Amino acid sequence: MKRERASPIPLARLLALAYRQLIDALHVRLAAEGYADVRPAFGYVLLALREQPGTGVDIALLLGVTKQAASKLIDVMERGGYVRRKPHGDDARAKTIAITARGRKLLVAVEAIYRGLEVEWANVTSKERMEALRTDLRTIVEVEHGGQLPAVRPTS
Amino acid sequence: MKRERASPIPLARLLALAYRQLIDALHVRLAAEGYADVRPAFGYVLLALREQPGTGVDIALLLGVTKQAASKLIDVMERGGYVRRKPHGDDARAKTIAITARGRKLLVAVEAIYRGLEVEWANVTSKERMEALRTDLRTIVEVEHGGQLPAVRPTS
DNA sequence: CGGATATAGTCAAGGACATTGACTATTATA
DNA sequence: TATAATAGTCAATGTCCTTGACTATATCCG
């Protein structure tokens, strides 16, 4: 016990490290399953499109980036076969971006990997503590944003 | 209760949102105190240099980036007056990077802000839950890295 | 000892990924 | 129906990181 007094590890650092750990492990395992071209933002987009298709602007708002950035991301996702652009029925300016079968398969793979990772985490704490972690983080984020989960903005 | 069954919010998303929330609030408050030029990586560097000076390579390893990237960051931090480069006593190739008085003041300000933010978080959960959060995150990260906290790599 | 090799730091070029700005086509408004 | 707002794209730029190349100094080892 040299000097435990110095400085507790900043919570921000712990959050960053835990996040990176999760994301890095996810992408390692995805690559092993044949999804080597997946970028972190893909998941957020596909999760939104799983329920129903959306426009480029929808996705820009979802991610909290400009529509130009969203457009480029969709380019990449479309090249990878995860989404498809189609003409929009009601609005000739807009395009409908829809998830593809491959996109849905990716989501299923991601969810399986996340389940595995969360089990691993629960093994070093406990099922209850992991539940509390999830609940508390959600509460904290929602309170700050008036009960709604905000856009993601994965990086910074 | 429409469809609660759909999909639980991924833990990764909660971690990312909580992290951003903390970092964004920190920088807003720092700017209000006259530290508008502070970048997220500053804190990690200053925290390491608070105990003792280090070299550029030390900082590159700390951040998990190349020494070129570290060098540029140090340029910025030196321009801001938070660190100072000095010739290294023992090694004429190396330079000693030391924290300045302004750097120390910034750390004190950061810590005060973090304390305030963690109190705010504890107000929406509880002191005990926040303690558990910190403990569990630390455990999870340490277990994955053999009992040691790894480098930061803030973004990605 | 002294030549091969490793290391600290920097400069330069390029890449990844975002931004702002400008533009077209279409839709909504007044 | 003129005017303003909106969806999408292209181009240029900015930030921050990387790889590659280089100099100066330190260390290793035959």
Account of the protein in words:
Two copies of one chain form a homodimer. With 156 residues, chain A is mostly helical. In chain A, 62% of the residues lie in helices and 6% in strands. Chain A contains six helices and two strands, in the order ααααββαα. The first copy, chain A, has helices at residues 11-32, 40-51, 56-63, 67-79, 101-124, 127-144; strands at residues 83-87, 95-99. In chain A, strands 1-2 form a two-stranded antiparallel ribbon. In chain A, strand 1 (83-87) and strand 2 form a beta hairpin. In chain A, helix 1 (11-32) crosses helix 5, helix 3 packs across helix 4 and helix 5 (101-124) crosses helix 6 (127-144). The longest helix of chain A has 24 residues, at 101-124. Chain A is globular. Chain A starts with 10 loop residues before the first helix and ends in a 12-residue tail after the last helix. At the A-B interface, helix 1, helix 2, helix 5 and helix 6 of A face helix 1, helix 2, helix 5 and helix 6 of B. Chain A binds a DNA duplex (30 and 30 nucleotides) through residues 55-57, 65-69, 71-73, 88, 91-95, 155.
Lateral strand order in the biggest sheet of chain A: 1-2
Q: What series of H and E elements makes up the topology of chain A?
A: HHHHEEHH
Query: Which protein chains make the most extensive interface, counting residues with beta carbons within 8 Å of the other chain's beta carbons?
Result: A-B, 51 and 51 residues
Beta-strand percentage range of chain A: 5-15%
Number of helices of chain A: 6
General form of chain A: globular
Cα distance spanning the termini of chain A:
36 Å
Describe the oligomeric state of these chains in a short phrase: homodimer
Secondary-structure-based class of chain A equals mainly alpha
Q: What's the total count of β strands of chain A?
A: 2
Can you give the mean pLDDT of chain A? Answer: 90
Helix percent band of chain A: 55-70%
Q: What's the main sheet of chain A like?
A: 2 strands, antiparallel
List the uncertain runs of chain A: 1-5
Radius of gyration of chain A: 18 Å
